[in-house]
Structure formats: structure tokens, C-alpha cells
Amino acid sequence: MKEYRTYKRAVRERRAFLRFLVFSLSGVLLFVILPFFDVFGRSFTTAVTGQFNGIENYKTIFGNRAFLLAVKNTLRFTGVCIPLLTIIGLLIAVPLSRLKEAGVVKSLYLFPLAMPTAAVVIVWKLFFYKQGFLNLYLSRLGEWTGLWGEVHTDYIGGGAAFWVLVFSYIWKNTGYTVILWLAGLLGIPNALLEAAEVDGANGLQCFIHIVLPNLKGSLYTIVILSFLNSFKIYREAYLVAGAYPAQDIYLLQHLLGNWFVNMEFDKMAAAAVCVGGFLFLVIMLLQYFWDKKE
Amino acid sequence: MREARRIKGMAIRAVTTVILLLPGIFVCIPILLLVTGSVMGSNELKDYLSPVLPNGTGFISWKIIPDYPTFSNYAKLLFFTPQFFVLFWNSMKLVTLILAGQLLVGVPAAWAFAVYRIKGSKMLFALYIVLMLLPFQVTMLSSYLVMNSFSLLDTHMAVILPAVFNTFPIFLTYGGFRTIPIELLEAARMDGAREEYIFWKIGLPLGKGGMLSAMVLGFLEYWNMMEQPMAFLEDKSLWPLSLYLPEITWDQAGYAFFASLLMLLPSVFVFMTGQDYLEQGIIYSGLKA
């Protein structure tokens, strides 16, 4: 009787699960997953005639200098930004968590999230153009200290553009990261910290031995979401510097966008499969470690 | 002694507050620039901005209070540029329909993942997370091919449909539903409530926070959307505002400032009203799957 009841329950649950999920799942299948299989198929054919040509497309893209450059730049960008953002967020969140009136500060940090890229970019241009605000103030500072003369760096056309993007990314996402760190920090039981203090641990020891280990869960989330948001920097890059920007900020998104415009679907399919597959692996690995931690 | 310690504590707090606020103020400088720029006449702006134009010399300059404040940009945009409103409503239409669709499709899906643990549901959820993390450019070609075969290219539907099935809002709403105690649902089942009834009467009211946060984050995201309309909409009269702003040239800088300000307003409004939910949503996005 009991077995029958659990069986009946399982059936009921499965049916309810499917009923609630059916719209979403069919949409995702129709608009994302099946088309991606189609693209996977296309990645082994030629663009125009659609003939099977094996792994020729993959060979082409891995011999393509633009593709290699874009991959390198994208990896460099995420490699620089994610650790930087994570650390800056933590540095702000720790003192903020001790503040009673953190509301205003939090809103200020979150605010850039609400600023549409198109509206911000016009300000970025005023700051980072060769004769913009940044060079103006740098020149004044140089004059005042007598250490250097007028500064005429081009922050958008040259290698410095990379750092403009990094700045822009940090500017936009610090609030998000701070909130996530704060949630983690506030989740640490006070009793734990008090006990350590009673045992004579100083502030730094408390931080290293109690606070940091308790933040591992938050770290995984922050890394995943920073990763997600790092792809969105393309908007800034595109609006500031167009479809063919300085070499250092030519990202994978630029490349795929340009191939799309030029209808080079064979290369695009191969690249989409490679990038998608790579991301899939990275995320699965992160998930695996995340699960193991708990 | 105690007094001295109290003062020291207060001083430390005051200093940290100031240090924390400083970058925050820095965050708001762009707004200030946009506001002052929008009330400057074109001659005054030309004086300030000529250095950043091609062949300009010297450096850019600026005044917080313009010498000759004017509302000419406001008049020009509000009364003489009907095109602006077409694009503004395009943006509104796209965002509203996307968010409505996401609610209809995503909320039940989030409920399914949050409440029922059947074989394979965890795997499926992991797949949803991977899909949510794929950048648009990776799925661009496949979306294009689908839209092409449904002959939806160059219609708003080409932008709306893929966005409706984005899995990020499901992830956030899921976080909200997970905070509902399972015992509550069990109790309802004991009393003979159907699953739909439980969803409607317990899930929706208690999981409201997660849904609202998904809506707030969604609004900020889709108001700012660029890649999708750029790839799928050729007809410029269908464009959202986010694609139009960058098209304004420097000789109309004051106009561009005001247009940017108008684009900012709905976002800021949603941000201000929904800030608590936004924060909640960010925290939900940190919950373990």
C-alpha cells in the first residue's frame, strides 16, 4: 500500500513538473537547442553550396588571424576583469557590511547598472577622447607637480582602449558584485566571529580564517555572473569604437558580428560551436566544483 | 577613556562612510554631465567640445552652470522630432512584450524546477544555466536561421521571441520560489489541494519577490538591448532607442545629451521603484541551484 502511494506520488509529481515546464521547454527547444544542432550540422558544410566538407571550416578558423586575435583578446579581458572585479567588490563590501546605514551607498554603487549603454557612451567619449577630460586633468596635474607636460594619449584608438573597457566593466558591475559579497558576509553567523574573538583572534586573523572560508559559495556565484556580464562589454566597445576597433579590443563578439554581416556563415557556425562548446565545458566544471563544495 | 574610544569609533565610521561614498559620487558624474549638457545652446557646446572634434586643438572644457542655459534642445526633440517618439515606443513595446512573455513562460518553469524533484530535472536545470550564460553572438546564427524559416526577420517578433525564452529570469524566479518552506506545500497537498491551486495560491504570492526582481533586472537589460535588434531589424523605423542614440552626430551634441537623458529616465524610474527587489534578485541569483 505504501509503495503504491509513493509510486502514485511520483507519477503525480512528474506530470505536474511537465505541465509547468511545457511552454518553456518547447520554446527553448524550438528557438535555441534545435537551431543550435542545425548550426552544428552547418559547421561541417560550405556556406554557399551547403556541401559536406568535413572539418575544413574548423581548420579555416583556427588558421584565421582575426579569430585567434579575438580569442586572445576575449580571454585577456575576462582574465583581467573577473579577478579585479571580485577583489574590488570584496574590498568595498567588507567595510560596508559593518556600516549601519549602507542603503544610500549601495544605491550609488548599483546605479550604473541602470544607465543604458547608449547614454553612457557619450560621456565616455568626452572623457577618453584624445583631448577629453582625462587628458585635461592629467595635463593639469603634470603642470601642477611639474613632473610631466601635456598628455595626449589616445585612449580609444590605441592599446589603452583595453583599459577603458576594463574600467567601464568595473564601473558597471561593482554594485552587483558588492551586493553578492554583502549577502555572503551577512550570512556568516555572528556567534562564530564572537567565539574567535573570545579566543583572542585579532581582526585580520578572523578575516582570513573565518570570513574568507565562509565566502566560498559567494565566490562561485560572483565568478559565474561576472563571466555572464563580461560578454556585455561588447556594447560599450561597439558604441565607442565601431565594428572594427583598435586591435586590442577586437573581441569575439566583434568578429562574429562581422562574419554575420558578411554572411560568412560557414566560419560563424564553426566558431559558434567552438565557443559554445568551450563555455559549456567551463560552466560544467564550475558547477561540478560548486556542487562538490556543498 | 571610554569617551575617547567612543569618539575614535565614531571617527572611523565617519571616515569609512566618506571613503565609500566617494566612488559613489564619481558614479554620478555622468548624469551631471548629461543634465548640464542638455541645457546648453549649440554655440556654447561648440566652444567647449570643439577640441574633441576632428582637427580640434587644446582640451575640452565644461561648465556646471551653463553661461546661456536654454531649452532649445528640449523643444527640438519634444516638438520637432516625431521619429524620436517612434523609437521610444518601439523600445517600450519590445520591453513590455518581452517581460510579459517571460512572466508567462518563465514563472511556471521556475516553479517546476523549484518544487518538483524528478529524475533528470537537475540535469535540465544545469542545461538552462548553461543556456543563460551563452552570449548572444554564439546563438546569433541559429536564431537568425529560425527567424528566417518562420519569415519573422525584420519584425519585432524576431527580437521578442528568443528573448521570451531566455532562461535568466527563470533562474532568478527559481531563487524566490526556493525560499518557500516545503512543509507549507506538503500541508496544502495533505488537504487535497491540486498542484495548480498550490502554485496559484501559495507559490505566486510568496514568490513575488523573485518575479519582481527578474522583471526589474529584465527591464534594465532589455531597455539597453542592442545586439538582437542590430542583427534582426534592418528597417530603422523598427529600431529601439538604444540603437538610435549613437547615430546622433557631434554637431548635435546638446540634442544627444537630452536624448540620452530621456533614455535614462525610464531606467532610473524602474531602478528607484524596484531597488529593493533588484537587490533581492541579485541575492537570489547567488542561491545554490
TrEMBL record, chain A:
<dbReference type="InterPro" id="IPR035906">
    <property type="entry name" value="MetI-like_sf"/>
</dbReference>
<comment type="similarity">
    <text>Belongs to the binding-protein-dependent transport system permease family.</text>
</comment>
<protein>
    <submittedName>
        <fullName>Sugar ABC transporter permease</fullName>
    </submittedName>
</protein>
<feature type="transmembrane region" description="Helical">
    <location>
        <begin position="77"/>
        <end position="96"/>
    </location>
</feature>
<feature type="domain" description="ABC transmembrane type-1">
    <location>
        <begin position="71"/>
        <end position="286"/>
    </location>
</feature>
<keyword id="KW-0472">Membrane</keyword>
<dbReference type="InterPro" id="IPR000515">
    <property type="entry name" value="MetI-like"/>
</dbReference>
<keyword id="KW-0813">Transport</keyword>
<keyword id="KW-1133">Transmembrane helix</keyword>
<keyword id="KW-0812">Transmembrane</keyword>
<feature type="transmembrane region" description="Helical">
    <location>
        <begin position="108"/>
        <end position="129"/>
    </location>
</feature>
<feature type="transmembrane region" description="Helical">
    <location>
        <begin position="207"/>
        <end position="228"/>
    </location>
</feature>
<feature type="transmembrane region" description="Helical">
    <location>
        <begin position="16"/>
        <end position="37"/>
    </location>
</feature>
<feature type="transmembrane region" description="Helical">
    <location>
        <begin position="178"/>
        <end position="195"/>
    </location>
</feature>
<dbReference type="InterPro" id="IPR051393">
    <property type="entry name" value="ABC_transporter_permease"/>
</dbReference>
<dbReference type="Pfam" id="PF00528">
    <property type="entry name" value="BPD_transp_1"/>
</dbReference>
<feature type="transmembrane region" description="Helical">
    <location>
        <begin position="268"/>
        <end position="290"/>
    </location>
</feature>
<feature type="transmembrane region" description="Helical">
    <location>
        <begin position="155"/>
        <end position="171"/>
    </location>
</feature>
<keyword id="KW-1003">Cell membrane</keyword>
TrEMBL record, chain B:
<keyword id="KW-1133">Transmembrane helix</keyword>
<dbReference type="InterPro" id="IPR000515">
    <property type="entry name" value="MetI-like"/>
</dbReference>
<feature type="transmembrane region" description="Helical">
    <location>
        <begin position="94"/>
        <end position="116"/>
    </location>
</feature>
<feature type="transmembrane region" description="Helical">
    <location>
        <begin position="253"/>
        <end position="272"/>
    </location>
</feature>
<feature type="transmembrane region" description="Helical">
    <location>
        <begin position="123"/>
        <end position="145"/>
    </location>
</feature>
<keyword id="KW-0812">Transmembrane</keyword>
<keyword id="KW-0813">Transport</keyword>
<feature type="transmembrane region" description="Helical">
    <location>
        <begin position="198"/>
        <end position="220"/>
    </location>
</feature>
<dbReference type="Pfam" id="PF00528">
    <property type="entry name" value="BPD_transp_1"/>
</dbReference>
<keyword id="KW-1003">Cell membrane</keyword>
<keyword id="KW-0472">Membrane</keyword>
<feature type="transmembrane region" description="Helical">
    <location>
        <begin position="157"/>
        <end position="177"/>
    </location>
</feature>
<dbReference type="InterPro" id="IPR035906">
    <property type="entry name" value="MetI-like_sf"/>
</dbReference>
<feature type="transmembrane region" description="Helical">
    <location>
        <begin position="12"/>
        <end position="35"/>
    </location>
</feature>
<feature type="domain" description="ABC transmembrane type-1">
    <location>
        <begin position="88"/>
        <end position="274"/>
    </location>
</feature>
<comment type="similarity">
    <text>Belongs to the binding-protein-dependent transport system permease family.</text>
</comment>
<protein>
    <submittedName>
        <fullName>Carbohydrate ABC transporter permease</fullName>
    </submittedName>
</protein>
